[in-house]
Design brief:
759 residues, alpha+beta, 18% strand
Length: 759
């Protein structure tokens, strides 16, 4: 390689790519959706001081490819870097494989940190705790997410020998970590994400289980209880078990395992947390038990790691490997195998090219060289093969295709081990007596979240079913664009039921399950997340787990009316089916629902509503006149922080009874709004109430006085189609673009702009 070539792919090249290289990019044929271009521009492309992108998507991919290819020089000084750069570039621009977000953001740039997943130890001392906090801030700044086990911290009210004081316990320190995370944005693009795990036998376990009951605590943490096999057996028998002080291993008290398990079920039903990780199951697959036990995972639960360990992830887009032959649509296993082998080499190179934020992390990572190759676009693959997600055929396909990926990935890691040597801690691993398992990497496969990556690749997230076949996305100037899954669109045109009106109607709910005009065959294949029973979600997770070294990021979706027994059934099944953990989400459970019953942390008694907010002396307002069958209605709405706070309604030239009822409606609506009930809930209750004298106004039918009030509120604060989508798709909106966010793969994701609350 010439000096000019080396300069062109410098590790710290922050200069614009050369004109000669730019000509190459223009000929690359990179095909990206408009949504993908938007997400790349907002979150991935290199920007100038004004925040404007100074590279194209193709330039970004080439920046990453050349940087990762440079690792070849570590093993062969005469390596043809251009050849490997071309391979990696074609792999990414063909949207067959994408690495985790920090690699796309930081490769070939000064930050240089390329891993997504980190685990930091939290030792039982003030110095150890705040060292972990400092290290987490550095990792978040570099684009990584952090997992912590707080199980080593002494329990609340334990004596502190050095000061004679009283310990505040793990939960109090978790709150400090949460506050610090709030202040650090990952790579300037997103807030950091954390996982907190506490062992089920820690004396503070009940406080941990209930810490998110009020919905306002630890918003930058995912929580999971570290459960043992012994606890699960005790819970099944409703037996008591020991709580253990982590300092000395002494038993402090006992709890009824059934009651603790019930509390976990209750809180998971209420707001989706805590989840569960099965510690014994995870450590059965710990490749280096001599180096320590695995106590926690990365933020979304799919990557168990030792303290000070990190992992680089990447995902193969399965939807790109379906071809048509005489037998119809089939999987192109030859192309898939080639992609897996190249991706393993890419990820192994990434370990060498990453600038880790701490020397201890650098040593651990390069000692074990863990990588996590996973998949995305599985739902799209099933669409193309016309296999229903909730079927035994889909489970068989999951095992077949992930078994193939696992086999090829292990073979590629073994080949790299022969070429470059096995991972340095191989002699301390459970593979050490097997020369046929002298892998380059201690672990090779992981099913990771692919939220923004799947937007770039224009496919379904990870192994999740599609969340909506068609949905409305906000684009520039608040225009609305109906976005349709391409495989569903192709099938609709093939079977002759496509129309713009139908696609827009489907976007209201995202599903076709309720449409009697479509055949059962079509409806069976094109199912969405909420059409699928929770048991099928979990069985799919278990199918992929059978052929995955690490763990699987998957959300088990439950309907809004799911019961506590439904949640417990999922927890029980996850344990019985050999999963390493489980995350579930009951539809709507994370909305700001002030009417949901939550326990008072002091008394344990139910709290039904929030206090009524005090009215300021002066508030801005507006008045709208609506013609009703009972006369002219005047609706005055006072606003606080641009939100409705009070409603005053008066009706002209009507009897006293109608006037009194109108005033009463206004007072009750005002009370609801001041108690924290959201305007969409008020509209939902009032809209459609019929009256004695419906009347047309502005081309619409006003049914009654309460219906008219609902229309005033909806016109000011809601967009009806958006409201309907939110009711179906989870109830929360993106803080950046206002479109609905979805709970997938253990975290919230906006499919419109790429905003996520997880790492």
């Amino acid at each position: 390689m010439t000096m000019t070539q080396k300069d062109q792919i410098s590790v710290f090249d922050d200069s614009p790519i050369s004109p000669e290289a730019h000509d190459r990019f223009l000929e690359s044929g990179l095909m990206l959706s408009e949504n993908a271009k938007t997400v790349l521009a907002r979150r991935y492309l290199k920007k100038n001081a004004s925040g404007n992108p100074v590279e194209t998507p193709a330039q970004m991919f080439y920046r990453v490819a050349t940087h990762i290819a440079k690792a070849e020089l570590n093993y062969d000084p005469n390596a043809d870097i251009r050849k490997y750069a071309d391979q990696f570039y074609n792999l990414m621009t063909g949207l067959r494989f994408l690495p985790n977000s920090p690699t796309l953001m930081n490769a070939g740039r000064r930050m240089g940190q390329l891993a997504a997943c980190f685990v930091l130890p939290v030792e039982d001392s003030m110095e150890g705790i705040f060292d972990a906090l400092k290290n987490a801030a550095v990792i978040h700044k570099s684009g990584g997410g952090t997992g912590f086990s707080f199980s080593r911290l002494r329990p609340k009210n334990a004596m502190v020998g050095t000061t004679g004081g009283i310990a505040s316990g793990p939960v109090s320190f978790m709150k400090i970590f949460n506050t610090a995370t709030e202040q650090v944005k990952q790579g300037g693009t997103r807030r950091g994400a954390n996982m907190a795990v506490l062992r089920v036998d820690h004396p503070d376990i009940m406080e941990f289980i209930h810490v998110k009951a009020a919905g306002s605590e630890l918003n930058n943490f995912n929580l999971s209880v570290g459960v043992t096999d012994a606890f699960m057996r005790a819970a099944k028998d409703n037996a008591f078990y020991d709580l253990v002080d982590p300092r000395d291993g002494c038993v402090t008290s006992t709890l009824n395992a059934g009651a603790v398990y019930g509390a976990m079920v209750q809180q998971a039903w209420q707001n989706g947390e805590p989840g569960i990780i099965f510690l014994d199951r995870i450590n059965q697959d710990n490749p280096t038990p001599e180096l320590g036990k695995i106590e926690t995972t990365n933020p979304c639960g799919e990557q168990p790691l030792l303290p000070m360990e990190a992992c680089t992830l990447g995902s193969v887009n399965l939807s790109a490997f379906v071809k048509t032959d005489d037998n119809g649509s089939v999987i192109d296993y030859e192309a898939l195998g080639e992609t897996v082998r190249t991706a393993v080499r890419f990820l192994d190179n990434t370990i060498d090219m990453s600038l880790y934020p701490l020397e201890a992390i650098d040593q651990m990572v390069k000692g074990n060289r863990k990588i996590g190759l996973g998949v995305m676009g599985f739902a799209d693959l099933l669409f193309q093969l016309e296999i229903p997600y909730n079927s035994q055929a889909a489970l068989d396909m999951a095992e077949e295709i992930m078994g193939f990926v696992q086999q090829e990935a292990h073979a590629a890691s073994l080949a790299l081990g022969r070429e470059r040597g096995p991972f340095p801690n191989y002699a301390k691993s459970r593979f050490r007596d097997n020369p046929d398992a002298a892998f380059r990497n201690a672990t090779v496969t992981t099913i990771a979240p692919t939220g923004t990556l799947s937007i770039i690749a224009h496919c379904a997230s990870g192994i999740e079913p599609l969340f909506a076949l068609s949905f409305v996305r906000t684009v520039m100037d608040n225009d609305k664009l109906v976005e349709i899954n391409p495989h569903f669109e192709a099938a609709a045109k093939k079977h002759g039921f496509y129309s713009d009106a139908l696609m827009a109607a489907i976007a209201e709910t995202g599903s076709i399950a309720h449409l009697d005009t479509l055949s059962d065959a079509v409806k069976n294949v094109f199912v969405t997340a909420h059409d699928i029973s929770p048991e099928w979600h979990l069985r799919m997770q278990a199918a992929f787990q059978k052929h995955t070294d690490n763990a699987v990021s998957k959300t088990v979706n439950l309907p809004r009316d799911a019961t506590l027994s439904d949640v417990q059934k999922i927890f029980d099944m996850a344990f019985d089916l050999g999963c390493k953990g489980v995350t579930l989400y009951r539809d709507g459970s994370r909305e700001n629902q002030v009417l949901s019953i939550a326990g008072d942390p002091k008394t344990g008694k139910p709290v039904f509503m929030t206090p009524v907010r005090k009215r300021p002396d002066t508030l801005p307002s507006f008045t709208t006149r609506v013609k009703t069958g009972m006369g002219q209605l005047y609706v005055t709405v006072s606003e606080y922080d641009a939100k409705p706070f009070e409603v005053f309604a008066t009706i002209g030239k009507s009897g006293r009874s109608t006037t009194a009822k109108t005033e009463a409606i206004g007072r009750l609506v005002s009370l609801a709004l001041r108690s924290g009930i959201t305007v969409d809930k008020v509209v939902e209750q009032l809209k459609g109430i019929g009256g004695e004298h419906p009347i047309f106004q502005n081309g619409d039918l006003v049914l009654s006085i309460p219906d008219a009030i609902a229309r005033v509120l909806a016109a000011r604060y809601l967009e009806e189609s958006k409201k309907q989508r939110e009711l179906h798709l989870g109830g929360e909106t993106c803080p950046e673009c206002g479109d609905p966010v979805r709970f997938e793969e253990g975290c919230m994701i906006c499919r419109s702009c790429g905003f996520t609350r997880c790492g």
